[in-house]
Each structure stands twice: as structure tokens, then as C-alpha cells.
Amino acid sequence: MNRPSAKGGAAGADAGKAGEATWDAGLYDRSFGFVSDFATDMVDLLAPKPGERIVDLGCGTGKLTAAIAAHGADVIGIDGDEAMVERARALHPHLAFQHADGRNFAIEGHADAVFSNAALHWMKEDPPGVIACVARALRLGGRFVAEMGAHRNVRIITDALYQALAEEGVPAEAIDFPWYFPRTSRYVGLLEDGGFDVTQLRYFARPTPLDDCPNGLADWIDMFGRNFTEAAPPGRVPAVIDRTVALTRDRLCPDGRWVTDYTRLRFVAIRVADE
Ligand SMILES: C[S@@+](CC[C@H](N)C(=O)[O-])C[C@H]1O[C@@H](n2cnc3c(N)ncnc32)[C@H](O)[C@@H]1O
Predict the structure, then answer these.
(1) How confident is residue 270, by pLDDT bands cut at 50, 70 and 90?
(2) What CATH number did the domain enclosing 33 receive?
(3) Res. 199: pLDDT tops 70
(4) Cα 273 from chain centroid?
(5) Looking at the domain assignment, is residue 67 inside a domain?
(6) 101 lines ligand 1 (CB under 6 A)
(7) Atom 13, ligand 1: which residue's CA is nearest?
(8) Which residue range forms the structural domain that includes residue 125?
(9) Core-most of 51, 85, 189, 195, by most CB within 10 Å?
(10) Is 23 in the pocket of ligand 1 (CB under 6 A)?
(11) Are the beta carbons of 175 and 228 closer than 8 angstroms?
């Protein structure tokens, strides 16, 4: 199971019906606003037009959903986590949000575009199933515009987490790696097999500062690295986090500012008729 920072409570139980993760939506907005801030040019790439029907898949708390709606598009945000959907509805009561999983969401009729930022890599159980679901939601000629974590994303951090856990006697096999970070060729193949022509694609390193995280990388691990910390022996989570921070500090925080080693895959793909 993928586990970002847990909030617990009833929201967790509900979220299990669509996606299994349970997010701390408030913490996400307070300290990890960079996820959507970095993607405002993704909305430019989407180029929403007034009246277009657009799905924001894995919309989180809805910041980019609202940015798309501001162009006059008829947008629906879809997310697999009830806590995220609840917060999105509270922050943007004029917009439509749906609690559903990326593998089996459905909309009435067809959309002109499906947009997704920083979410597809969390849907690791069935990437072809997610692409098939997006294809079903789109009209022919509709566009799938997305950015996701890609091959080698946060590798310095995850290598250090594996090492810190190994030093605690936890083997790599005991850790459920939470993400799907595909190579470019692999994902293009999935898109083509799933009924898309890829018209734009960019794989790039995007060093990402953690300026809103008071405890730097420790906060990042707390938010996104639950699958790792949950594998730690009882009472050893702080030690694992401290060790991970120590192992990465020279490369990710050489001058007192944490900058994480993100790599991204950004693409535009067009829904075409099956051949
Ligand atoms: C890092 S957040 C990105 C949120 C938003 N797109 C943004 O840019 O701020 C990833 C989001 O993907 C959602 N997600 C993860 N797995 C999902 C799934 N299987 N189906 C739908 N949403 C999912 C999470 O609940 C979370 O809100």
C-alpha cells in the first residue's frame, strides 16, 4: 500500500474505497505547495479554452484545478483520497470534485483533456489501467497533458533510506517502494499501446528546494516516505530519519538549504482511433 503522511480517522477508511493512501491535506498545503507551484506552466501547456471539459486527475487540494477553471474551462477534479477531496471542496466550493481511483474513474460523456500533475507516479499498481481509464474518458483527438516523477526521481533520498534501514536490519525486500518512476521509453510504449500518439515529451532533472519545510528532508520523509519509515523496527523511526538526513546532507544540503533530486517526465499525448 502506498502511504504518504497519514492523517487517520474516518477519512482514511473512506479513502480506501478509491485509493488507499491517506494524506494530511493541511500539511500538504502548508509545506508542500511547491508541488503545484512548480507546475503552473503545466497549465500553460494544457492551454485550457473556455467551455472545454477537462479532468484534473489526482487533483489533491485543487489548486491547479482552480487555475484551469480560471481559463473558463468546465473542470472536474478527481482524487483517490477522501481527505484531499474534502479539502479541495472546502477551498473551492464552486468547483466539482469526485472521489475516485485513477484506475477506474468515469465521467459522463467525454472530456476534451485530462490533466495530471505529480499524481501518476502514485498510481503504481496498474499504470496501463490508469492510461486505459484516461483514454476512455477522452474524446478522439482529446489530449492527455501530464507531469510525473520519472526514472531516478529522488534516487539519492531513497538510496539513503534503504541504507539506513539496512543498518537497522531491514532488508530491501521488506520495503514496499511507493512509486512508479518509469523510464521514458517504457511510458511512451504504454501510452502508444493505450491509444495515444505522444506529441511532446520531456525528461528533465528539476532540483526541488524544501524551503517551506522547517525540518528540511525530515519533513519530506514524514510526508512522502511512510512506506519506508513503517518498515523501521519499533521505536527506530527517528534514528532512520536522522541517518538518512546524515547520509544525504553533503549532496542535497551542502550550504544549509535542502534541494531534493527530482526528475520529471512531462508529456502531451493525443487520443487517437485504435488501429
Ligand atoms: C503529490 S499529490 C499532487 C496533487 C496535485 N495534482 C498537485 O499538483 O498539487 C498526488 C495526489 O495523487 C492522488 N492519488 C494517488 N494515488 C491515486 C489514485 N490511485 N487515484 C487517484 N488519485 C490518486 C493523491 O491522493 C494525491 O492527492
Answers:
(1) very high
(2) 3.40.50.150
(3) yes
(4) 28
(5) yes
(6) yes
(7) 58
(8) 10-151+179-209+262-271
(9) 85
(10) yes
(11) yes
